[in-house]
Amino acid sequence: MNKTTVFLAGVATFAASTSLLADVVWDEDVDGSLSTDRFNTTDFGELSVGSNNMICDTQSGISKFFTFTIAEGDELSAIILDDWISNDDLGFLGVVTGDYFSVDPANPDVTQLLGYVHHGETFVGEDILPAMGQGPGSIGFTGALGPGDYSFWIRQGGAELTTQDLNFVVTPTPGALALIGLAGISARRRRG
Length: 192
Known about the structure:
Blueprint: H1 3-18, E1 23-27, H2 28-31, E2 42-46, E3 50-58, E4 64-70, E5 74-85, E6 91-97, E7 115-119, H3 129-133, E8 148-156, E9 162-172, H4 174-191
Parallel strand pairs: 1-3, 2-4
Antiparallel strand pairs: 3-9, 4-8, 5-9, 6-7, 6-8
Helix pairs in contact: 1-4
């Protein structure tokens, strides 16, 4: 095998193994309600590489807040809406950098949001991260979100109780994947 084939095989194996690392980082039925205090968010800690699911109930404009950290060498590459149980399609998810939610939800200024998205049933199975980065008037971003702390504001505008399952997908940065591939090539050379 040539170096490129070995590298690509290593990357494919690593990518496939991350799907085995799925984890529920917060389930309100088990862990209790998410914080309603933007200055004292529910902290998920550092997310692992792979799927990190958050399952919560929202209703009638009640705002909830949570924070997590993306480690050095990793990135938040997708936010998949895995499930949405409601007849109301009035979901909202906003993000800022930092370990608390710095924008006042009582008087929101979208120009202070890193990004946001309105979501619901039609987005089930879709990655909503790109739409968040293009939230009209927000600071905006393209691609994955790199290492650091991120705080989120989630709410449901409709009166009907809504259960949603958001999957925060963390992957190694492309540079980290290249290092993994190089380590595999070096190991193969030592064995060969």
